[in-house]
Amino acid sequence: MTTTVGGATPADPAAAPVAGLVASLRAIVGDAHVLVDADMRATYETDWLGQWHGTTPCVVRPGTAEQVAAVLQACAAAGIAVVPQGGNTGLVGGSVPRGGAVLLSLQRFTELGPVDTLAMQVTAGAGVTIEQLQQHARAADLDFAVDWGARASATVGGAVNTNAGGSRVVRFGTMRAQVAGVQAVLADGSVITQLHGLPKETAGPHLPSLLVGSEGTLAVVTAARLRLVPWFRSSAAALIACDSLVDAVALLPQLRHLPSLDAVELLMPEALALACAHLAVRPPIEPASAGAFVMVDCAAHLDPTDELAELLQLQRGVLAVGAQRDLLYRIRDHVTIAIGARGVPLKLDVAVPVQHLDRLLRAVRQGLRTQAPAAELIVFGHLAEGNVHVNILGAGDAEPRMRDLVLTAAIDLGGTISAEHGIGVAKADWLERLKGPAAVAALRAIKQALDPGNLLNPGVLYPPG
What we know:
Blueprint: E1 3-4, H1 18-29, E2 34-35, H2 38-41, E3 52-53, E4 59-60, H3 65-78, E5 82-85, E6 102-105, E7 121-125, H4 130-138, E8 142-143, H5 156-162, H6 169-172, E9 179-185, E10 191-194, H7 207-211, E11 220-227, E12 229-230, E13 234-242, H8 245-250, H9 252-255, E14 261-267, H10 269-279, E15 292-300, H11 305-312, E16 316-320, H12 323-333, H13 335-342, E17 346-351, H14 357-371, E18 376-382, E19 387-393, H15 399-412, H16 431-435, H17 437-450
Parallel strand pairs: 1-3, 4-6, 5-6
Antiparallel strand pairs: 2-4, 7-11, 8-12, 9-10, 9-11, 13-15, 13-16, 14-15, 14-18, 17-19, 18-19
């Protein structure tokens, strides 16, 4: 399914009243960084999996916080909203332009400060990719903890705005746990710079924490002060075959006793088979031989292979070190890509208390049997957090009903409708059901205080009304 978001955009980007705004933006950032040609705008107007499409009169690419401030002021004066965008790897439409909004790209914010080895921190521009950040930290014998398959394209700004998670949350937490400070531009053009990264500060509410997960609706984040972690150069992984998802969950207490535990991933058989077929590699274990697969990764300063080998004495699985571990991660990282190669799925990112994972997937399968029996269900995710990515191919007209079923089941089981992809425009109308009217009213009050003109990413996160 592909979705077009937002209202109409003038067919000619130079038409009034946009012409005056384009001229103002060019004066701020230079002609080369205001894109109005349809071909040059195209990659910014569609998300990376082709699920969400929109149009913008122009793409503007500022290079400093001061330029961002001037861009926001110019757009506010013209009455035109702004959609911030980083690496455009989101999956809920939050960074796709809509309603004639200007697309503000943060790709030029690529500065990486020196690694502070004493504080174990670094300052990174919003346009720095996660992979670049990891390499920069490792050059100083440290590492950045948040990691997921889109690391080569996903950016620091996008990770901050969506509170990204990935595979190492079991050990280090989500992006919020890594953010020690931010530089951000408010809707009125005010620039807030809090990049000292003090580990102990009790001077009022922590504004950086407020902006993490705000999806560009409260401010435009231009840089972040990030915590780093030790770089564990010794690693080993295992793929464990379980008879059922219930058995996979039952492994968690044992896995948490591993001192070097770094990730606990879930691959349902269909996900393992699809990724291996896409990569044209032989599966480490025959997918049909199990009801669920648990991928365990350990990392330490000393070789953790023996820890995993001891665990596997009581389990059915394979040990993966060196090239075998790299292959295992290639398989895991390519599940989403393999799904996209098959078609545009109904893709839902949900989490429930881990003991209810099996109940969730049983509800999804039952729904498919009645609503779309020919559809294909592909599930993978992060087992330790109860977070699964539910992908349904070929649901046809039943997609809206299946979407409602999955999200309702997650809420009813005490879970969330978004564990790491954000709310975007895809789930904005579900936020009040998830959090309750009082919580949403508080969020609206914050939005109104910081962005009274609804300039920043309107339609995202906050429910209509």
